[in-house]
Amino acid sequence: MKILLAIHHRFELWNAPEWLGPRLQSEFPQHSFVQLEHFQKMNEEITQAEVMIGWQLRSEQFAAARKLRWIHATTAAVHQLMFPELVASDVRVTNSTGIHGPVVAEHAIAVIFALAKGLPAAAKFQAQRHWGQQQLWSGNFRPCEVAGATLGVIGLGAIGRQSVRLAKALGMKVIAMREHPQRGGEGADRVLGPTEMAILLAESDYVLLAAPLTPRTQTLFNDGTFSQMRRDACFINVSRGALVDEDALERALRKATIRAAALDVFKTEPLPPESALWELENLLITPHSAALTDRLWERHFARICENLRRYEAKQPLLGEVDKQKGY
Length: 327
Known about the structure:
Layout: E1 2-6, H1 20-27, E2 32-36, H2 42-45, E3 51-54, H3 59-64, E4 70-72, H4 84-88, E5 92-94, H5 97-117, H6 119-127, H7 133-138, E6 150-154, H8 158-169, E7 173-177, E8 190-192, H9 197-203, E9 206-209, H10 223-227, E10 234-237, H11 246-254, E11 260-263, E12 283-285, H12 296-312
Parallel strand pairs: 1-2, 1-3, 3-4, 4-5, 6-7, 6-9, 7-8, 9-10, 10-11, 11-12
Helix pairs in contact: 5-8
């Protein structure tokens, strides 16, 4: 069986390390592993591959991949693979949501603390050599307590589930929203369905967006959504930038419709220098860094090995995507 590793990105960590292919070959000597350093040979190599490990594939490449039976994405999101031909095929798709989820949840909780304790403003005061105690108390980032506050979690995938557990450990009240609320809330105090999002927004001190990107969730947060939030609430997005109308968020922050926000993902990445979002004092920006960890590729290696064993044994695969839903 030929297994193609086609993983390339402008960011260093998202690229597969040189040791990945050789270690997989040592673990599975009965198979043939081909690891690409770039995509120049992609069109040639994909034609004979039964398995592809990577996160992007063009429709014309898919059409040429007559032997392809399974794609394992090294990303949590797979919307980039959900083109009609692949969705309609019998090619299986798995993602890496369980690998990224716990790390991103830690980031979400860190951001809640940063907003609650006024750390963005304090960092600016430090850069100015200014003792800004009074300004901190009087500004948008006025310190407050996390314990006892209400967190609204939209989406109960790997990020959402772990965020619920961490928030509950901190003494927060948690309201969760998921497509099928009857499945439970992973420890949340209440579980709501999509039609009840307005309730979650009205009651939450912090709103954490951790939903997948699908046609139904495009610009889920817009002028109308932000207007349903409390004026003293904070909005956090660690999912995908396209879920948020960034112009609407800018308006909400400038007009103080909401207190503050934190974004780790954006519609265009890197965020252009001319973007007005950089100017907002009540917005905390991180450069899509929520999932960064030095343990990333060891975890990818373990997941790939486990799923290859399952694939050989015709057992259920971890992280299998429902292609009709897109996640």
